[in-house]
Amino acid sequence: MLGLSLGLNLGERGMLPVRCCTVKRLCTISGDWPGYHGSMPPSKRSRRVGLARALSKLGYCSRARASDLISAGRVTLNGAQRRDPETPVDLATDRIQVDGASISGHSKLYLMLNKPRGLVTSAADEKGRQTIYSCLRPDLPWVGPVGRLDKASEGLLLVTNDTEWAARVLAPETHLEKTYHVQVRAAIEPGIIRSLTKGVSTDAGLLRARSASILRHGTHNTWLEIVLDEGKNRQIRRMLQALGIEVLRLVRVAIGPLALGDLRKGGSRALTAEEKHALDTAMERSQIRALRR
Is 150 labeled as catalytic in the residue annotation? Predict the structure, then answer.
């Protein structure tokens, strides 16, 4: 496992509790922080990028937040105030400060979170709703969610300060499979399964699943396993709604080879080096398969 000393006493496999108010559960981050990785190599640092993107790449904040800080005059580059988020920066040589404090690259952090239902996947919510950050320790460096799970959905969500890696996970050309378990209020016939994989006409166009199958069923409801390899907004809900089927629960249980496992609701932990490597390998293989189609 990869690790970095943070001056935190976690014990041999310690658990640090943090607040998680709305869900009425104790959110925890467990493990010895194997998800911390080294800083960017010099070859990556030498590229010139916009100032807002530079702050994001350094793991300080999101690009949108960086643009706000720059426009507000709170950011200096080599001692001079800059208000243009696109001001070119050389990460190898230039000095960036926010509110007078120098900014340097944070080590890379890759977390998995079991998102509870009812939380918003956002750093802040204009309606004052509780966000996924209530399940993360407040002393973490800035991290952002990799993609979205809507408020009513739950399950596996990746969180990182590595914005380039997050972009690769989300890129349409990556075709990284995501697996969902979906409870619906209906007895599902084989024809519905065929429709999901062949394509369903929705208000967002034709949408299809990579695969779909019945996990178990009762008299009035059914659990489905649906695998997607593209990241359309609310794709499963849109497809099932177009087929006249009500979704009761939607749980993401895997992203590529990374399974949610027994991580408790509201809990989070760092990925192991092996899990991170497996995800990277899966992305490369998915891209190769897509090119051969």
Answer: yes
